[in-house]
Amino acid sequence: QVQLVESGGGLVQAGDSLRLSCAASGRALGIYAMHWFRQTPGKECDFLAAIAWKDGTTMYADSVKGRFTISRDDPQRTVYLQMNSLNTEDTGIYYCKLTDDAGMFYWGKGTLVTVSS
Q1: In sequence order, what are the residues at sequence separation of 6 or more whose Cβ sits closer than 8 angstroms to the Cβ of residue 41?
Q2: Residue 29 — pLDDT band, cuts 50, 70, 90?
């Protein structure tokens, strides 16, 4: 079984920064990629960023490009999301997702980010 635990969420003011972490644990697995998504009230769960585990190639949604940075720590099996210049529209529950080499998906339980104006 694979567990993903997100951390780093909290209440911040517009313009502030936060760094989220997501640590993978459990059975030995090959990670293909890890991703961050955001769930906001009344909306779909939106893709934010992804990182390919082997070579570190990254991809971002237009809404966060230039403000958010995804990175990984391979030995720790941890993915990070550095979020800068936060605004109220960034409020939501942030989830990480892991895709393993077999194509299986795993989700964390999320961490809440609240950005006040």
Answers
A1: 92
A2: confident
